Amino acid sequence: MRIKKLGLLYRGIIYLFAAFLLLVIALLGRELLWKRPVGSAPKLPLLDGPQWEQLDAVSQEQWTDRAECLLIYDEAPQSLLGEEMMRSALEQMKVSVRPMPQETFRPVYLDQCGTVLLDLVELDGLGENLPDLMDWVKAGGSLMLLSLPTKDVYTELIFGELGILSMDERLSVVHGLRCVKPFMIGGDQDYFITDPYESSIDVLLDDQCEVYMESTGDEHIPLIWRRKLGDGAVVVCNLGFYDKIYRGLYAAAYSLLDDWFAWPVINGSAFFLDDFPAPVPFGNDEYVTADYGVSVGDFLVRNWWQDLKELAQKHGFSYTGMVIEQYSNVTEAPFEKNLNVNRYDYFGYDLLGDGGEIGFHGYNHMPLVLGNFEYDDEYREYVPWASEADMEAGLTELDEFCTDLFGERDFRVYVPPSNILSEEGRALIAARFPQIRVIASTYLDDANAYVQEFQVAEDGVVEMPRVISGCILDEFSYLSAFAELNFHFVNTHFQHPDDVLDEDRGADLGWAEMYRRLCGYADWLYATVPTIRNMTASELAAAVQRYDAVTVRRTLEDDRMVLELGNFVDEAWFLVRLNGHEPGAVEGGTLEEQLDGLYLLKAESDRVTIELD
Which tens digit of pLDDT belongs to each residue from 507-520? Predict the structure, then answer.
């Protein structure tokens, strides 16, 4: 009996020792993780402050002897919208543009540019200068109409030169877009307008016009066409949409003007997980429990995160997770530290181990705004911060929290909660948190949103907006993604763990359907641009730095297109359009066909030449 008791005692000691040993191994493993980099080295490093400042100084210099494009506009509201949109697009395509009110235009200015863009509601302001403009095109110039002007005597005067046989006097509603010729990446499917209006004029064209885009449905209204005119060419846009997201369509149209054209792009894709890691909701949820029979916390571990990992592994990308330390309305110091970190350890190290990146979302989910900020009704429950010192203290606490969890590393990326960031909050980040090199908010206008372009701000912080979000991914999402692939060759997407709990974000559909739609978008993206570079947020920001800095001079030498690049660091990417030509030998870079006549160029030196056959 005594022997039996001793055996049980020894067995208990062994079990206790084994448990202790496993605990030591777990703790030691965590310590080792802290002391070694988790995930792969950056594909592309961020340029440091001195490097960027040197490039930025050079980028301010005028790289062309004359304006490449003369943008003629009038004072009509539609024209002003078009001028703002197109000037921004051309500047980002590194086309030097000279905006000019139509009343100041004179034919002598045509000798100082290569292309002319007419953004006019009526042509009568050009008057007797209109024939001179068309003669300039026939002699080898390139003319693009941003929209069809009102039908009048001046428009009818150039009907034939635009290829128009007849034209309605009233605008028509366009419900969708269809590429007739393969001139845009992803143009093998229709894209639909979520809020259509009377935007375009139905026209009958002659057989010398090449129609590139038309409306969906039975109308087949020509929306973008090109016509040779003597030794020059005319491109006509009949879209009538001037929102920011349509710039990619106009950029593609502009690239049709000449025999060849090239514009810099980013070439990168990043997927963000906002509020991740963050405190896991306790208890059950009606949608999750009905479908999976588990608590929200268990669902996020067993189902949601495993599904997202599987999607990332399928397509070879890694997530950038944006940490929230806790959900509270506290916006005045002192700030309580979150001690419940088990799920942070699990999710955070799993994400980092898969090559991902951790960034800052906030101490809590309160945007960095003070009491003078005017919230729209949707965000009335948000609590302003008591002072700038309190905003700084909140971010400092988050920094310490993440450092305690994930070791000494640079947390370079900040995503504003609900994409809201005040001027004071933006200035605070740049002044007090130099390790934050990237702010990733939103590309499109939204209530109270901090809206961005892909660029480097004057203070050196990289502005890197997210274009689409969520799992529903409606028609507008696909149109937005389509346009940006053709403008910046970029994809940025974000979602939240609690999307699956919110009816407005698809919870009533169930996670299985939400995940199916998310997978559908990823499948579409990588089928459309299979070689786009997968990057974390800071890697993509490094690509934005190089894109924003580079300047280009485009010339033709003995049937070779020549790109001379300023601010070239180690690489630059371009989309190259060849109209009626095939590329021959390439020096200084490599060329990859995206579709007939459109190529992705990786510039590997500051001078690239492409022979034209």
Answer: 999 999 999 999 99
